[in-house]
Amino acid sequence: MKIIKFGGSSIADLDSIQNVLSIIKKASQKEELAVVFSAFGGVTENLLTCAHLARQNDPDYQPLLRGMEKRHLQLVKQLIPVQKQSSVLTYVKVRFNELEDLYHGIFLIKEFSPRTSDYVVSFGERISAFILAEALKEIDLDTHFVDARDLIRTNDRFGNAKVIFPTTNQLIYDFYSKNKGLLVITGFVASTNKGETTTLGRSGSDYTAAIFAAALKADSLEIWTDVTGVMTADPKLVYSAITIPQLSYSEAMELSHFGAKVVFPATMQPAMKRKVPIYIKNTFHPEEEGTLICETSETTKLIKGISSLSHISLLNVQGSGLVEVVGVSSRVFGTLAHAQVNVVLISQASSEHSICIAIKSDDADMAREVLEKEFQYEILAGEMDKVQIMPNMAVIAVVGENMKHHPGASGRLFQALGRNNINVSAIAQGSSELNISAVIKQSDLQKGLNALHEAFFLS
Ligand code: ADP
Ligand code: MG
Predict the structure, then answer these.
(1) Are 384 and 324 in contact (CB under 8 A)?
(2) Which Enzyme Commission numbers does its entry carry (predicted)?
């Protein structure tokens, strides 16, 4: 059996949807399938925009909501013959009525919590997968619509919920044993034990597909998107990027962790555990091979790919007195973890006088506040400086298992950036020696990516 997933970019309009339906039809003739869908392209963003408008008491959410409803109803009319439309149209209309009530509530109380957000965005996948399950029936596939909230159990960390695997695997397995036919599954959404809707993190539909692949011990997992596989860099930033034929799970995880959004980082974990190979394919060029992600890494190059993260700030914790203070780093990281600040990269000078920490810019003010509170006595005593923040930074990471065996990657990285007058503010190597990452100015990012791409792939 094979699990296939289509992202929003693959189902953004009628033409691409019809293309996707024929890809599924063709694949279903070869082996047993289950399909995971994201929301139609752009719908998640629109659902969130409506909520933000409503919270600001701005009635403009109403035309936006009506536009979304119209778009969905239109797709139903285009995909399903007239005599069978009415139940699907009703399903869509009822969902939009619920949304209208929800937004009206947000408008009245001017409040939009993470819990409400998860419930609001869940409508995108619930409606798209339902419509597409019906559309697939029209090309003679015996489909079974699955609301993943019934099968994937998580904790209640809304927006980025953690999957409870033993329960989830059992629920999926039991469901599958009782319901034959082509499962058409909502990506992204899940629920708590209490039945509250949660989501698996932005772009979490890839993860949904991997969860099903592992639970059903699938032979393979295919993620269909709008580019041909994982590429040596984001093709939107580096025009000469090329497809990477093959990656190890760890390399794929590392690349996506550092910004290659073509596959969601958590996707690799369930697949790796059950050794399910992942293929990344292009919906618009199905004939192209794409990328295979599996246990081993094969390449002749020093690295596999380059990725980057924007909207980064660099925190600098330093002071001459810090050498004598025991456990400075554990206090720094404990404090940040307690405040739920996600640390992207750490770089410590060997003198221990300073620790550089890259974090998301959104977290910067809060991080400074909690650190200055934790170290208030050291700061007062002059043993430590006030925490400095460098805003508008980006992280570039070069990734590949080959770096373990062949030195020279960091030299090449520094040289290429230096030649282009790009200043490196901090550098770090992952403990697995799988990546080297450098913090540079956001304004140097595209130049830096292209310089590194040329140095590692084109020379
Ligand atoms: P989907 O809607 O299918 O989930 P996404 O937008 O989440 O698609 O991911 C596909 C996009 O990821 C591509 O259009 C590309 O711009 C971006 N991307 C970033 N880094 C890479 C990379 N290294 N290789 C391929 N695509 C990348
Ligand atoms: Mg995606």
Answers:
(1) no
(2) 1.1.1.3, 2.7.2.4
212 & 324 share domain: no
- Given a cut of 90, whether residue 74 has pLDDT beyond it is yes
Domain with 28 in it: 2-226
CA distance 235 to 232: 8
* 388 alpha-carbon distance from chain centroid: 30
pLDDT score of 265: 94
Q: Given ligand 1 and candidates 225, 246, 254, 398, which is best to mutate, with the most ligand atoms within 8 Å of its CB?
A: 225
Q: Which pLDDT score, from 0 to 100, does residue 320 have?
A: 80
185, 34 in Cβ contact below 8 A?
yes
Q: What are phi and psi of 95, to 5 degrees?
A: -60, -40
Report the residue among 206, 224, 261 best suited for mutation to probe ligand 1: largest number of ligand atoms under 8 A from its CB: 261
What are phi and psi for residue 186, nearest 5 degrees? -75, 125
- pLDDT bucket at 405, cuts 50 / 70 / 90: confident
Chain centroid to CA 284: 21
Task: Kindly list the protein residues whose Cβ atom lies closer than 6 A to any atom of ligand 1.
Answer: 7-10, 38, 203, 225-227, 230-231, 233-236, 260-262, 305, 307
- Separation CA 149–CA 399 (nearest Å): 35
pLDDT, the chain, mean: 95
Q: Final residue of a domain: which of 211, 226, 241?
A: 226
In whole angstroms, what is the distance from residue 203 CA to residue 39 CA?
Answer: 10
Q: What's the domain count of the chain?
A: 2
Query: In the chain, pLDDT over 90 holds for what percent of residues?
Result: 88
At position 416, the amino acid (one-letter code) is: A
